[in-house]
């Protein structure tokens, strides 16, 4: 699975949260606690827009190619195959627009709106700023993987079990995505329902 948040962005956000938490605990400042809530709301809003296209892509990649034939295998029959899967990142999933009106804590450092990349987008970044008490807070938005095409090879094997059921195993090596890695593996079961219909079974 790809790492969906850029490390400097996460480190900066984590540092801000530690600062806010420490100050709130020391001073029991009601306003600071409210600011924590606003900051977290903004982080959740941005993370949802940034991560969702990548999680959708991960689902498409991980579920592809499990079934290679509808026919049932003989008991203990084994098969192996080398596959390659390619995912083209749609243009609509590579960036999104943020406006100052979307945030309650942060504001854009320049302008009132900006187009920023999702996890599948390019490396364009903008700065978000806010004020915590009298302390300024400044974070850089995360970059995307900047790849229009993501391809990965994987090995898949099947073992014929009883009653028209197969045990399936899939594994791929890690694929480098700029500063992230992508990997798919899993185990599944396939059961043939066509064996219960004589007309379908006769046609193979």
Automatic annotation (TrEMBL):
Highest taxon in the source lineage: Bacteria
Keywords: Signal
UniProt signal peptide: 1-26
Taxonomic path: Bacteria, Pseudomonadati, Bacteroidota, Flavobacteriia, Flavobacteriales
Stated name of the protein: Uncharacterized protein
């Amino acid at each position: 699975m790809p790492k969906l948040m850029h490390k400097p962005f996460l480190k900066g956000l984590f540092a801000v949260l530690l600062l806010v938490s420490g100050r709130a605990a020391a001073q029991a400042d009601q306003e600071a606690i409210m600011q924590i809530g606003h900051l977290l709301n903004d982080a959740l809003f941005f993370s949802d827009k940034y991560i969702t296209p990548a999680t959708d892509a991960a689902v498409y990649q991980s579920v592809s190619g499990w079934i290679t034939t509808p026919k049932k295998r003989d008991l203990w029959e084994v098969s192996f195959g080398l596959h390659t899967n390619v995912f083209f990142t749609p243009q609509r999933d590579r960036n999104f627009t943020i406006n100052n009106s979307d945030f309650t804590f942060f504001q854009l450092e320049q302008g009132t709106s900006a187009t920023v990349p999702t996890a599948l987008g390019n490396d364009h970044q903008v700065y978000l700023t806010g004020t915590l008490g009298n302390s300024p807070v400044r974070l850089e938005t995360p970059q995307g993987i900047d790849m229009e095409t993501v391809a990965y090879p994987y090995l898949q094997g099947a073992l014929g079990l009883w009653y028209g059921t197969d045990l399936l195993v899939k594994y791929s090596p890690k694929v480098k995505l700029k500063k992230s890695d992508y990997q798919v593996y899993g185990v599944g079961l396939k059961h043939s329902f066509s064996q219960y219909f004589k007309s379908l079974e006769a046609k193979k």
